[in-house]
Task: inverse folding
């Protein structure tokens, strides 16, 4: 009986699958919270309830720090290849994925869904792509063991993207506006 020669997969260490807490906070801030931190909160709901004199915790100094942090992190993201920045965006942007899929993949969910849509999503507008990703995510939630190759690919891409970002940012401390 002949055996096929299979090239060994590169060794991936557990530490490469997670970003440092500092990098994790920066990327979560950039992709999910920066815009809200830079603008004053709406007073719409307070006006509807008839409360016009409520104090806000927002202040201009915090907004300036958030804008500075956003600009620094954006510079680091622009210094890495677009494909790596896209992987980080897929990993860190908060989305409401199917529970089964998120339970199986965790932070890699967005990357796996983006990989599954890679060839079909070319040329689509952002809203169309988001709809297609949600449809594909529902399908992937039922895929079971067929997720294994996509999970492996996502792990490698995530590790490479985190490594590129960490290299681009160097030893700098997190910007003060990152909370």
Result:
């Amino acid at each position: 009986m002949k055996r096929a020669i299979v090239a060994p997969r590169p060794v991936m260490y557990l530490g490469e699958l997670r970003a440092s807490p500092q990098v994790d906070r920066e990327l979560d801030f950039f992709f999910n919270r920066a815009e809200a931190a830079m603008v004053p909160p709406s007073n719409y709901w307070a006006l509807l309830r008839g409360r016009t004199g409520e104090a806000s915790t927002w202040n201009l100094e915090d907004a300036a720090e958030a804008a500075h942090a956003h600009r620094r992190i954006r510079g680091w993201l622009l210094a890495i290849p677009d494909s790596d920045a896209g992987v980080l965006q897929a990993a860190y942007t908060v989305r409401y994925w199917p529970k089964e899929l998120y339970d199986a993949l965790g932070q890699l969910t967005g990357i796996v869904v983006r990989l599954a849509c890679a060839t079909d999503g070319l040329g689509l507008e952002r809203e169309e792509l988001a709809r297609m990703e949600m449809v594909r995510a529902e399908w992937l939630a039922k895929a079971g063991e067929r997720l294994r190759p996509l999970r492996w690919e996502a792990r490698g891409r995530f590790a490479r993207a985190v490594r590129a970002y960490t290299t681009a940012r160097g030893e700098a401390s997190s910007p003060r506006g990152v909370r």
